[in-house]
Amino acid sequence: MTAGLPFVSSRARDAAGGTALLARHPLAPSGMVLREGVFAQVEGRVLAPGGPVDVVVAHPAAPVFRGDPTGWAQEITDLPPPAVSPDQPPRLVVGDLDATLDHRPLRTLLARGWDDAADAVGAGLRGTWPTDRTVPPFAAIDHVLVSGRASPVGVLTRDLPGTDHAGLVVTLAVDGGRPGATGIRPGP
Fold first, then answer.
1. Residues of 138-171 as b/e, b for ≥16 C-beta within 10 angstroms?
2. 167, 185 contact by CB (below 8 A)
3. Closest to 182 measured CA to CA, from 160, 162, 153, 139
4. pLDDT tens profile 151-169
5. Cα distance between residue 42 and residue 67, in whole Å
6. What's the pLDDT tens digit per position in 90-135?
7. pLDDT band, very low/low/confident/very high, at 40 (cuts 50, 70, 90)
8. Of 6, 60, 156, 172, which residue is least crowded by CB atoms under 10 Å?
């Protein structure tokens, strides 16, 4: 999998305890500050030919994995702010947020200036979890949040062996230019 994505920023751990950012183009620090959560999260600036894009790979721990559900909400609230200035690189938050568009912490985060890519293209209810059951995925808990000079133009889900989440592939138009794809693979 990493042959086409040679640039890596990783805090991977066993099971779903960490995250990694794999990129086709070189990575640099984005300068975004991540508050430590239950699961390790990463950030980076993808130095793409058309200009940099700042990315956070997030995985707040779901309320079912902790004794205090307010911790899950706080981890979502603590995600970095969106890009708001035209001179800032586009900014993405990608990952298993363990929240649907119905959950207040995610709605509050979106109200700060993020766009949910799937919702923006009319696929906000497309389930991504669970994929390891006999019923189809019914919960849209995996997200690509977009801000700044990037606009979602397409969303697909893909089956991924070895995980209970569907892969989410989002096509973005950056600066109104040629669309490019970013994909996330939520943890197992």
1. eebbbbbbbbbbbbbeebebeeeeebbbbbbbbb
2. yes
3. 153
4. 999 999 999 988 899 999 9
5. 24
6. 999 999 999 999 999 999 999 999 999 999 999 999 999 999 999 9
7. confident
8. 6
- The identity of residue 177, as a single letter, is G
Q: Which residue has the tokens 């990129």?
A: 23
Task: Return the residue matching tokens 């794999």.
Answer: 22
- What is the token pair recorded at 26? 């070189």
Q: Comparing C-alpha atoms, which of 46, 148, 43 is closest to residue 88?
A: 148
Amino acid in position 28: A
